[in-house]
Design goal:
69% of the residues lie in helices and 9% in strands. By secondary structure, the protein is mainly alpha-helical. β1 and β2 form a beta hairpin.
């Protein structure tokens, strides 16, 4: 197993164990502490566990190298994992929003929610501490390994921490202010649900763009052109195409060299271009260079 895959697998396994324990604890605390918000919070932790499983399944598949059927490798599996995690977040946030709205309406119509017990309050505190730790740890590994799936999973941890903050405010407010203020619980859950939905939608766009073969962007392509044109022996370039495949950038283009260059000299120029691009964008960058002779200007008779 490659070092990158080991690091991602380790942080995801740690997260899955913590998520399982937190889910059981929060659901237990919600039932015995008479807190619907805490039960929902526990269900949210279960969704985190699902996203951990998604990452554990797809990351090893994305780490496979190129083969006869997949010439560009398997990086899209990591993109797919990011997309699935974001969809899970969207579904969870939508469920939280709908349930909180229903509860708020019921409270406004006169329904009185039971005052939660202290165990629900402590469960929220424990959840916030552990989930924030998981967010920081997972995001650190995600940035270090350049794994978008890992970063997406980190945000899933953060969303659970935000959900627990909502539970803390709601449960704490109900305990301190009495049953007339139990509506604070669903109001806080609604606000947190909207925050999670915003993060999930933002997370949803990049993997969709990548699956649609979107280019690396104008700024990046200008930088690529400058690197290529600054390589000794390159006269100009055209037909530049760029895209992503997981963490790997794919760059294809045509370059022109002087007509009197030998095949070996032209090959060396193309190799220099590849080297310069990989120095900037990483060794996993996949590059295709087509070498052409400079155009000749036909003399008019």
């Amino acid at each position: 197993m490659k070092e990158r895959e080991k690091q991602i697998t380790k942080v995801t396994l740690v997260g899955s164990v913590v998520n399982l324990l937190l889910a059981v604890f929060k659901i237990f605390a919600g039932i015995f502490g008479r807190s619907g918000a805490m039960v929902a919070d526990g269900v949210h932790s279960l969704s985190d566990l699902i996203s951990d499983v998604v990452v554990l399944v797809f990351i090893p598949m994305s780490s496979k190298g190129r083969d006869k059927r997949h010439k560009y490798g398997h990086g899209k599996f990591e993109t797919l994992a990011t997309l699935i995690v974001s969809i899970i977040l969207i579904v969870v946030s939508a469920k939280l929003i709908i349930e909180s709205i229903n509860t708020i309406v019921a409270c406004l119509q006169g329904e009185v929610l039971p005052v939660p017990g202290m165990i629900a309050l402590w469960a929220a505190v424990v959840s916030i501490l552990f989930k924030e730790f998981l967010y920081q740890y997972t995001m650190f590994v995600g940035r270090k390994t350049e794994s978008e799936a890992c970063k997406a999973n980190a945000w899933h941890h953060r969303s659970d921490a935000l959900s627990s903050i909502g539970s803390l405010l709601g449960v704490g407010g109900a305990i301190l202010l009495g049953e007339k203020w139990t509506i604070l619980d669903p109001i806080a859950a609604f606000v947190i649900g909207v925050m999670i939905l915003v993060v999930a939608v933002k997370m949803f766009k990049p993997p969709i763009d990548e699956l649609m073969e979107k280019s690396l962007g104008e700024e990046t392509e200008i930088e690529i052109e400058n690197i290529i044109l600054s390589t000794q022996g390159v006269l100009n370039l055209h037909n530049l195409k760029t895209r992503c495949n997981g963490r790997s950038k794919i760059i294809d283009c045509h370059i022109r060299v002087k007509r009197d260059k030998t095949i070996v000299e032209a090959h060396d120029i193309a190799t220099a271009v590849e080297r310069n691009l990989r120095e900037r964008f990483g060794e996993h960058t996949q590059i295709g260079i087509h070498v052409e002779p400079e155009k000749t200007v036909e003399k008019s008779l």
